[in-house]
Each structure stands twice: as C-alpha cells, then as structure tokens.
Amino acid sequence: MSQNKQPLKPGEKILFTVAGAFVVFAVIAFIVMQIFMANSDKPLFETKTHASLSAEGQLGSRLFRESGCTTCHRALRNGTNMGRTADLDGIGSRRSLDWMYAFLTEPVKNYGAQTIDHAPGQRSAAYVAQMPKKDLHAIATFLSELISEQGSSSAAIPPKGDSPFIDSMVETWAPKEWKEKYRDIRDDPETLRQANEKATKELQQP
Ligand code: HEC
Predict the structure, then answer these.
(1) 132 CA distance to ligand 1 middle (Å)
(2) Rounded distance, CA 106 to CA 109, Å?
(3) Left (φ > 0), alpha (ψ -120 to 50) or beta: where does 174 sit?
(4) Ligand 1 geometric centre to CA of 68 (Å)
C-alpha cells in the first residue's frame, strides 16, 4: 500500500492551498461578524415598516396566513418574497383599503396591468377572488394597516435628509435628459411637501 502513495502534484498543492484559504477566511469572517454584532446595538437591517392592527386587521392577518397567501407573499415575517411575487410589508402606504379590496375581488378589472396569478383561470391565485367577500375585506383591511416609513423601499417619497446612496445612483444611472426634464424633489422642500400630499391623496382613491 505505502509504495502506491504519491507526492502531491503542483496543481493539487495549489488547489488545496486555495481551498484551505477559503475555509480559513470563512472562519475568520464568521468570528469577526459575531464579535462585531455582539458589541453593536444597531440592528443589521433597519426595519422601516410597521403595523398597528385593528380588530378586523387582526382577523385579516390570520386569514392571510391561513389562506395560502404566504406561498407567494410576505407580510409581518410570514411567507416568502422569492421570485416574482410581492413583499406586502408597507403596502398600506402605497395602496388604499378600497384599492386592495377592489383588486382582491376583481383583479383583472382593477390591477391596471396584466396579471400573472390572480385572474380567473390563471395559475394558483385564481381562488383568491372566489373567497367570501367579508374575508377579503378583512384581508384588505389588514394589508392597508401595513405602513412604511418615509424612505423605506415601499414608501412613495424618498428618505429625509441627504442620501449619498441615492445621489450616486442618480449620478450613475439617470439619463442626461432626466436632469433637464425633471427636478430632484429632495432639493426643494415645497415640491417634496406637494409630492407627499399627492401620494397621500392618491391613497385615498380606489
Ligand atoms: C400563486 C401565487 C400567489 C398567491 C397564492 C397569492 N398571490 Fe397575490 N399576487 C401574486 C402575483 C404574481 C401578484 C402580481 C399580480 C398578478 O400577477 O396576479 C400578486 C399581487 C397581489 C397584490 C397586489 C400587490 C401590488 O401592490 O401590486 C395583493 C394585495 C395580493 N397579491 C394579495 C394576495 C392575498 C391577500 C392572497 C391570499 C388570499 C394572495 N395574494 C395570494 C401571486 C400570488
């Protein structure tokens, strides 16, 4: 047996060294992260959505979990937002209760775009529009109570104050004509206030 043992080839040495380096790096990174997180009272991700549920909203929350919505959606730490479907946290700041109810009961008429899943005969969410109207109303109420703070990705207006991230994105990605055609509403408190008012008004319409 022992005479069959061969010394490592140079290629193998390199391969094992690289693989070993990855393992060492992963272990060090893990330890550093643990120490860093244990000593920091800042959460890794800031939560910018919240909910305070009415009685009907609580019923809706339960129905949301029990009616299969979480196979495709996510709200209040339940469900998934993998793939093409929507994370519904904060949706109450974008859509009104009336919009939500209209969409759930008659998706084709009220979505304003082609639907993939919710229309009759479409894949697996066609059943939603067939659910009892009062259940759908409770769910719509629940969803309308999922609120996002200004600056959350589901909010209609950008964060307060300066954002180096947004600045660099606009700088890099916005086409030149945009800069001539549109104004950055963050530069002008009055425009920002009006945008806020408009977004709030739109919420009140179905
Ligand atoms: C099979 C996956 C699936 C299931 C199950 C499902 N949905 Fe959806 N939902 C979607 C998709 C996809 C969209 C985007 C519209 C479309 O293509 O139908 C959507 C859109 C929505 C929207 C609109 C979001 C927006 O702002 O545009 C709401 C509200 C919603 N779903 C609520 C529900 C509720 C409540 C349930 C459970 C009773 C549910 N969905 C079950 C896939 C699903």
Answers:
(1) 16
(2) 6
(3) beta
(4) 10
